[in-house]
Write a structure and sequence with these properties.
Blueprint lengths: L6 H17 L4 E6 L5 H9 L3 E7 L8 H7 L8 E2 L15 E5 L7 H14 L5 E6 L1 E2 L7 H13 L6 E2 H11 L1 E9 L3 E8 L1
Parallel strand pairs: 1-2, 1-4, 2-3, 4-5, 6-7
Antiparallel strand pairs: 5-9, 8-9
């Protein structure tokens, strides 16, 4: 394959789409934070034609998704934006009505997770949604042995990484004006959390 490929993205794109199609049911621009290969961006833009998809990623990686985007010739997906969540790069983004991020919170440092929530909260309009996908723990307990092992492997790779706990995220959201409204159980011990801007 001449495009970057993530097997995990290929596996989870449809279950995530099934939920996003319910949540992002009105026209608007959706910011994706951490677009990676671009597989999610392309799949969602193809199947949610009422949305404009705005990919973004760290300035060192944001061009990775270009091969997928250019190969589709979709008119409702923008060129990727170089976004470092911990910087002031948010100001250059187009106006958005929603935000989405997958498998980023456990890779980012906690200060970066805080910055992501603060940036999203500032960028979203009142009643806008932020959908966050990935593995999460609950009250300090992992939802499966595989998630516990994954968390251990992340922390062994780098001390700043690790599966985030829902209660920590709930408090963080509340501090930025984002209220957790839905928590969906998805395959492979992952969740999709929906936060609404107050």
């Amino acid at each position: 394959m001449d495009k970057p490929f993530s097997q995990a993205c290929d596996n989870n794109k449809q279950p995530i789409l099934d939920r996003l199609s319910e949540l992002f049911d009105q026209p608007g621009t959706i910011l994706e934070i951490g677009s990676g290969t671009g597989q999610h961006a392309v799949h969602f833009a193809q199947h949610l034609p009422h949305l404009t998809w705005q990919p973004s990623d760290h300035p060192h990686n944001y061009r990775l998704c270009l091969a997928w985007i250019r190969d589709t010739h979709l008119t409702n997906i923008n060129l990727p934006y170089p976004l470092d969540v911990a910087s002031n790069d948010w100001a250059g983004l187009p106006a958005i009505q929603g935000a989405y991020s997958a498998n980023t919170a456990h890779i980012m440092s906690w200060p970066e997770v805080e910055a992501m929530f603060a940036g999203v909260a500032q960028a979203l309009p009142s009643d806008g949604l932020f959908c966050l996908y990935g593995p999460f723990s609950y009250g300090g307990r992992h939802t499966s042995d595989s998630n516990r092992r994954f968390d251990q492997s992340l922390r062994a790779q780098a001390a700043h990484m690790g599966i985030r706990d829902l209660e920590d995220l709930r408090r963080l959201g509340a501090s930025t004006g984002l209220v957790l409204t839905q928590d969906f159980d998805l395959p492979a011990n992952n969740r999709l959390l929906a936060w609404r801007k107050q």
